[in-house]
């Protein structure tokens, strides 16, 4: 390795970390000793407030108060409380996000409910890059509703909306490509979909807590996302759903569960959805996970999404600078777009031996992941990843790919 290049990148990393206004937030995380953790694309790390909150939920709330926990400990309202905390990060005013079930289930709900808002329109428009669970749900929902799915490359969406907009009821899309980390124009695509009279459903799994999506300002109709990646809610933590206020009274819930009933304890024979975001609730929520999530979200206290985005861009940009200096001439190349407006929270690196290299990275203290056939993903979490870690990770990668 060219020693001068390496020294100046190291100095640059130190300078960027020293000037970082979010540096104090790192101590809110419990990070693995001796490992650079870059797998928030799959599972964010533990945050320091979670253990005590979960112990209290188990030993005191459940252990001593049992059923009274639903009221005395606020369990019943936990999905809405966590939803509002997440809503702040998504640019959603209170009362439009609720935490419930898994992303897969909520994708189904949102997609079916959105399709029901456009009876007569026979097409669901989505992208060829859809995450598998979204793909399976889309196909099944289309079969149930007698609709057709049209999948186009992300760059073709606007053209299809213009050409065939009257047939399209719903645009289902992910603002971040789960493989490459490419960021799409949620605002512009939502506008284009609305111009064609379509309803938008966004899967925010790789955007929540990392990219400002400004759901209210962008007039998004519905959105869903997981909470275990950048939001650090823990393994299997429940998902969230956003239903824009204007749709809540007409949201025709395809999984009408008693938790979403206007009078859940009325035990009525027929479903009458709550006239609020509560209608998006289904059955009894996993309270211990919900409490862990609520505590985890404290990591974002007093943190503004613009700062998060600025730091995220600094980290991904610095990764690319390091890659340009250190990986040029190797068989590894960056697959994530270079332009800031086209990248989100992770950087993907392409290499024919990606699975083997990811294992070797792990053996050398860098946790990244692999997505078939040939991508390595490095999730850079703006609340704890440092530029020095980025530099060290790219140096380790370079030693493995030459
Ligand atoms: C874009 C996207 N949608 C959905 C999911 C997952 O859905 P679930 O939380 O139901 O496993 C993931 C990741 O697992 C994802 O990346
Ligand atoms: N949800 C996951 C899990 O339960 C185990 C391992 C990974 C995941 C993931 O979230 C994968 C992720 N959505 C992806 O982008 O590949």
UniProtKB/TrEMBL annotation:
Write the record's keywords in alphabetical order, separated by commas: Aminotransferase, Hydrolase, Pyridine nucleotide biosynthesis, Pyridoxal phosphate, Transferase
Entry EC number(s):
3.7.1.3
Is Zinc set as a keyword in this record? no
Q: Keyword check for Transferase, yes or no.
A: yes
Pathway named in the protein's UniProt entry: Amino-acid degradation; L-kynurenine degradation; L-alanine and anthranilate from L-kynurenine: step 1/1; Cofactor biosynthesis; NAD(+) biosynthesis; quinolinate from L-kynurenine: step 2/3
**What sections of the protein cross the membrane?**
none
**MF annotations from Gene Ontology:** transaminase activity
Cofactor(s) for this UniProt protein: pyridoxal 5'-phosphate
**Reaction(s) catalysed by this chain's protein:** 3-hydroxy-L-kynurenine + H2O = 3-hydroxyanthranilate + L-alanine + H(+); L-kynurenine + H2O = anthranilate + L-alanine + H(+)
Under the heading Pfam families, the entry gives: KYNU_C
UniProt-listed InterPro entries: Kynureninase, PyrdxlP-dep_Trfase, PyrdxlP-dep_Trfase_major, PyrdxlP-dep_Trfase_small
Superkingdom of source = Bacteria
Signal peptide positions are none
Note the subunit structure: Homodimer.
Stated family? Belongs to the kynureninase family.
What role does this protein play?
Catalyzes the cleavage of L-kynurenine (L-Kyn) and L-3-hydroxykynurenine (L-3OHKyn) into anthranilic acid (AA) and 3-hydroxyanthranilic acid (3-OHAA), respectively.
Its name, as the record gives it, is Kynureninase
To which species is this protein native? Actinomadura graeca
């Amino acid at each position: 390795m060219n020693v001068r290049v390496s020294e100046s990148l190291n100095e640059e990393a130190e300078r960027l970390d020293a000037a970082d206004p979010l540096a104090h937030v790192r101590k809110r995380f419990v990070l693995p000793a001796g490992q650079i953790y870059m797998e928030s694309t799959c599972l964010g790390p533990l945050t320091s407030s979670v253990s005590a909150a979960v112990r209290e939920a188990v030993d005191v709330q459940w252990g001593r108060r049992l059923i009274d926990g639903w009221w005395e400990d606020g369990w019943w309202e936990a999905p809405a409380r966590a939803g509002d905390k997440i809503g702040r990060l998504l640019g959603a005013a209170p009362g439009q996000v609720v935490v419930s079930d898994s992303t897969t289930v909520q994708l189904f709900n949102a997609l079916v409910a959105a399709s029901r808002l456009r009876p007569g329109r026979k097409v669901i428009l989505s992208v060829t890059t859809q995450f598998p669970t979204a793909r399976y749900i889309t196909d099944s929902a289309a079969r149930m509703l007698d609709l057709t799915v049209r999948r186009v490359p992300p760059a073709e969406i606007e053209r299809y909306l213009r050409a065939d907009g009257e047939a399209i009821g719903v645009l289902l899309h992910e603002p971040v490509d789960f493989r490459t980390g490419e960021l799409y124009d949620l605002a512009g695509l939502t506008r284009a979909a609305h111009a064609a009279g379509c309803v938008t459903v966004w899967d925010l799994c790789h955007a929540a807590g990392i990219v400002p999506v400004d759901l209210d300002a962008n007039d998004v109709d519905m959105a869903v996302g997981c909470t275990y990646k950048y939001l650090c809610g823990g393994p299997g933590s429940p998902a969230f759903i956003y239903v824009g206020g204007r749709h809540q009274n007409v949201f025709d819930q395809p999984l009408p569960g008693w938790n979403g009933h206007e009078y859940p304890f009325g035990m009525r024979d027929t479903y009458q959805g709550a006239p609020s975001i509560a209608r998006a609730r289904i059955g009894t929520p996993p309270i211990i996970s919900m409490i862990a999530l609520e505590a985890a979200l404290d990591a974002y206290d007093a943190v503004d999404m613009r700062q998060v985005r600025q730091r995220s861009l600094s980290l991904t940009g610095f990764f690319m600078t390091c890659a340009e200096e250190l990986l040029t001439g190797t068989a590894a190349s960056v697959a994530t777009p270079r332009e800031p407006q086209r990248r989100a929270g992770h950087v993907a690196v392409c290499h024919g031996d990606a699975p083997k290299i990811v294992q070797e990275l792990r053996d050398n203290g860098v946790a990244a992941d692999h997505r078939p056939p040939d991508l390595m993903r490095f999730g850079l979490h703006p609340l704890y990843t440092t530029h020095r870690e980025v530099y060290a990770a790219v140096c380790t990668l370079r030693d493995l790919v030459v």
